[in-house]
Amino acid sequence: MCGITGWIDWNEDLTKHADTMLKMTETLELRGPDASGTWLSRHCAFGHRRLSVIDPANGAQPMIRPLRSSEDQDGVVVYNGELYNALELRKELEERGYRFRTTCDTEVLLLAYIEWGPECVEKFNGIFAFAIWRTDEEKLFMARDRLGVKPLFYRLEEGRLLFGSEPKAILAHPGVPAEVDAEGLAELFVIGPARTPGHGVWRGFRELLPGHCLTYTRDGTQTHAYWKLESRPHEDDVEATARKIGELLTDTLERQLVSDVPVCTLLSGGLDSSALTALAVRYYDRNGQGQIHTFSVDYVDNDKNFLAHDFQPNSDAPWIERMSRHLDTAHHPVQFDTPELVDALETAVLAKDMPGMADIDASLYLFCREIKKGATVAISGEAADEIFGGYPWFHREDALKAETFPWSLSAGLRAGLLSPELREMLRPEQYLSDRYAEAVAEAPRLTGEDQTRTLMRRMSYLNITRFMPTLLDRKDRMSMAVGLEVRVPYCDHRLVDYVWNIPWEIKTAGSREKGILRQALEGVLPHDVLYRKKSPYPKTHNPNYLSAVRARLLERLDDPSSPLLPLIDAISIRELAAATDAHSHLPWFGQLMSGPQLFAYLLQMDFWLRHYKVRIVS
């Protein structure tokens, strides 16, 4: 995994701008702590920061290879990601006459493009964001993996395109102001911490959509989708479906365990992470690779303050110990206290270049920082709930019929926290309604489906394309901010393709959420773990955290220089702060962000506006 950035400009000689390219590249140092490289030509400049995972000695980037059609012209690549079918592609390319200089997948990717052109992406199994420059045609080609696990932002203006793994690389260009317009503010205050697909929040920024390619030449820009969810009849019965899921998940996980550096798994004691850990242990045992290391996260005094509810029915700790003992893993429990979480709120903003999931982000950053001390690659269970329908809102009538995103049920509350001027500018409830209508209109339907199947397919689409990216974005930024690569097997596109079309009554086989996944894992997990009710990523329940972020926010509201004040209704927020206690449940965003996270989000917003010196433009 790495950080990439680039600058294509038809009006400048970029060989004269080495300092700027280096500055853009070095903003991504945390993503790639092992090596740095730049490449400049007249109209294209690339920068790369490397986290060495495969072939550390020989995989330096930007990587250059001669084009097959023109030996005196080159293809140049900067690449962030991992190809899990690199060995198969390498063999196919060797049969076509290519000779490899390294064992890294960067060379496989570049030669695949040289051989197959833009169609190469259809052959890739992995997570990736990359850019390739053809010197003969003066053409930039960029692509992003099918589910959007790896980020890729860009800014296009007359005669110039800038791109980067994170907005900070683009913001480092002297010609790019740190500005946000009304639509960006709507993303932050109405949609945030989620984002509308493709939206970059910063004025003029876009994010290349998952499963999309972009081509940039002197004639302009073209984008197209090379992959999308397609609805078709599901023909397998329950037993065949469970068997297929088991085969796909096993193959996917084993591909993702390949690495030249230490690998671990994240273990919560829930279905998703326990399954991946169990399959990893089987693979390690079969190949004589020894004991696998597992990591878990918890918080000081959570055992004393845990409050069970529909989204978080029980604590993880006993289940983590159960699975670690059962699988004989080398387990590493990690625990944080309130001061660490509060202090890390600002670090999390710097990792994302915008406010995020507050302490949910901050704790993940701290967790990844601890994991990095013992491993470079981690296996995580993200996306299983979105793909298999595990969240409570898949099973609640009010959420299914809410005519809005089920994680954004408090639109009126959020709108009431904004200043009258900002409410007038953003029209928050209309903005949310429009984004929801766009999402529903995109969802691919299947002719002949009954009302229930259609409704559940729509809910699945909203989760896969709108909620899941929020968690993937969070996982990428917080892990890469400490140079940790996190792999997410449930995002394998073959698995997602297959599960997308499984009818709801089969997905809930046995009248249980994710019933078909549980059936697929019979014999892999102990029965009690296999049928444990879902519990999400843990957050702190310590009342000290609420007290700390509330007090700090009130201090900011007392500061007349706070850039947050013109954007909010300070009186309403003070009233809300006074009325919120440790037992209050404020459904601000999703299943994890309640009152304390709202106050922390506003703290992050204040810090973001100050630190980045954000200018708001009309």
TrEMBL record:
InterPro entries: Asn_synth_AEB (IPR006426), Asn_synthase (IPR001962), ASN_synthetase/amidase (IPR051786), AsnB_N (IPR033738), GATase_2_dom (IPR017932), Ntn_hydrolases_N (IPR029055), Rossmann-like_a/b/a_fold (IPR014729). Belongs to the asparagine synthetase family. One of its GO terms (cellular component) is cytosol. It comes from Cohnella pontilimi. This is asparagine synthase (glutamine-hydrolyzing). Keywords: Amino-acid biosynthesis, Asparagine biosynthesis, ATP-binding, Glutamine amidotransferase, Ligase, Nucleotide-binding. NCBIfam families: asn_synth_AEB. It catalyses: L-aspartate + L-glutamine + ATP + H2O = L-asparagine + L-glutamate + AMP + diphosphate + H(+). ATP binds at L266, V297, S380, G381. GO terms for molecular function: asparagine synthase (glutamine-hydrolyzing) activity; ATP binding. Pfam families: Asn_synthase, GATase_7. L-glutamine binds at D105. The active site is at C2. The record marks E382 as: Important for beta-aspartyl-AMP intermediate formation. Its EC number is 6.3.5.4. SUPFAM superfamilies: Adenine nucleotide alpha hydrolases-like (SSF52402), N-terminal nucleophile aminohydrolases (Ntn hydrolases) (SSF56235). Pathway: Amino-acid biosynthesis; L-asparagine biosynthesis; L-asparagine from L-aspartate (L-Gln route): step 1/1. One of its GO terms (biological process) is asparagine biosynthetic process. Residues 2-219 form the Glutamine amidotransferase type-2 domain.
